[in-house]
Automatic annotation (TrEMBL):
This is Replication initiation protein. It comes from Paracoccus fontiphilus. Residues 18-159 form the Initiator Rep protein WH1 domain. It comes from the Bacteria. Belongs to the initiator RepB protein family.
Length: 397
């Protein structure tokens, strides 16, 4: 792959943080963790030209590195992009004249991968809303990469926009379930289950991972919990994740070398703030000393994330049997109609004996790690010819 042109890492990408529209945050609860991170990076990349351009592009490998994902697994990237196109964004707000406005749009109007480049677009109506600076919450991409739970990242996004007021205010429990993407689950209608499986783990990860500390409080009518809010304080241990917009770091020699390499101003300051000059300098020397690296910025990104081999230009190795099986399953899902997909999910869900398995499938769909063997057996029964030549006992793995 040729070196990534500098114009793909300038403009909005130099920020390292995305100003995400409140409406988009509210409806993206059912996105997987990967889809949520992907949505943020795509919005960051497009932000400067949301209104002036009808389509946007980003190098696919850079995209994968920015969300901390294996850049060789294009099938899962395709599946995630498909999920963004199929996700509905809904807004309900006051316009500049004080009139109520309701609207609905797909999160992405289209996405395509061609020649190592991801091209995508937003509908004009949604792009207008995403471009409105009065209703944005700031999402730091360096923080979002640390999250391992989609529910935790959803909680962080919905709390962080209230960081200056110190509290989210009271949310009805039904609204909170929607924000977390579990409003369609009968299991989470019971607050005991919601608290144990969603609230407590998400709060723990936000407090451990991000630059804020959140504390839940509930309000009851009788014995039933009806509302929830979150108190919000700065996390002093992780305050370094907030990027200082001051110019002090720009006078350093490491910053100058990053800029000479083609790294954007915002990204250079984010790396120096997160990793420190000594570590960045070490990785920079390592990358600049590598022979045959055609995308030094991509390689440096991977090196700072602790896995430089992911940026190597060597051809990817042959997929493992499990990866090949997953590819076949995703192809089978893709071939089904939307109605058939919904029916397949309901049928599979009805066969899961434990709540933790149903929860994992709700969060990850056909990529559910806890249900991998069951998913393989399910699709072998649905489409037997798809697994021709594969021993049946392999389905137990």
């Amino acid at each position: 792959m040729d070196e990534i042109p500098r114009d793909q890492l300038t403009g909005a990408l130099r920020r390292g943080a995305v100003k995400k529209h409140v409406a988009a945050i509210h409806v993206s609860g059912k996105l997987t963790l990967l889809q949520r991170k992907l949505s943020n990076v795509l919005l960051l990349n497009a932000y400067d030209t949301l209104i002036s351009s009808t389509r946007h592009q980003i190098d696919a490998r850079t995209l994968c590195l920015m969300i901390g994902y294996n850049s060789n697994d294009i099938d899962t990237l395709k599946q995630s992009l498909r999920g963004l196109v199929e996700t509905v964004a809904e807004w309900d707000m006051l316009d500049e004249k004080g009139q109520q406005e309701w609207g609905v749009s797909s999160l992405l109007s289209y996405a395509k991968l061609k020649g190592g480049v991801c091209e995508y677009a937003y509908s004009p109506a949604l792009a207008e809303k995403l471009n409105d600076p009065k209703v944005f919450a700031l999402i730091n991409l360096n923080i979002q990469r640390r999250f391992t739970s989609g529910h935790a990242l959803a909680l962080y996004e919905n709390c962080y926009r209230f960081v200056r007021t110190g509290s989210t205010g009271w949310w009805p429990i039904d609204l909170f379930r929607r924000l977390m993407g579990v409003d369609g689950s009968a299991y989470y209608e019971t607050f005991k289950h919601l608290n144990a499986k969603i609230i407590k783990p998400a709060v723990a990860e936000v407090n451990r991972t991000s630059n804020i500390v959140v504390t839940p409080e509930t309000r009851k009518t009788g014995r039933a919990v009806t509302d929830i809010r979150f108190r919000i304080n700065d996390n002093p241990q992780l305050a370094i994740l907030d990027i200082d917009d001051g110019g002090g770091v720009r006078h350093g020699p490491v910053y100058a070398r990053l800029r000479a390499l083609g790294v954007s101003d915002r990204l250079a300051r984010q790396w120096l703030g997160s990793h420190g000059e000594e570590q960045v300098l070490s990785k920079l020397d390592y990358v600049e000393g590598k022979e045959g690296v055609r995308s030094k910025i991509g390689y440096l990104t991977a090196a700072l994330q602790g896995d430089p081999e992911r940026a190597d230009e060597a051809p990817p190795s042959a997929p493992s049997p499990r990866a090949e099986r997953l590819r076949r399953i995703l192809e089978a899902v893709k071939a089904r109609t939307p109605t058939q997909r919904d029916a397949d999910k309901r049928l599979f869900m009805s066969q899961l004996p434990e709540a933790r398995l149903r929860d994992d499938f709700e969060r990850h769909g056909w990529l559910s790690p806890l249900n991998a063997a069951r998913i393989a057996r399910f699709w072998r029964e649905m489409v037997p010819e798809m697994f021709e030549g594969e021993p049946e006992d392999e389905m137990q793995a």
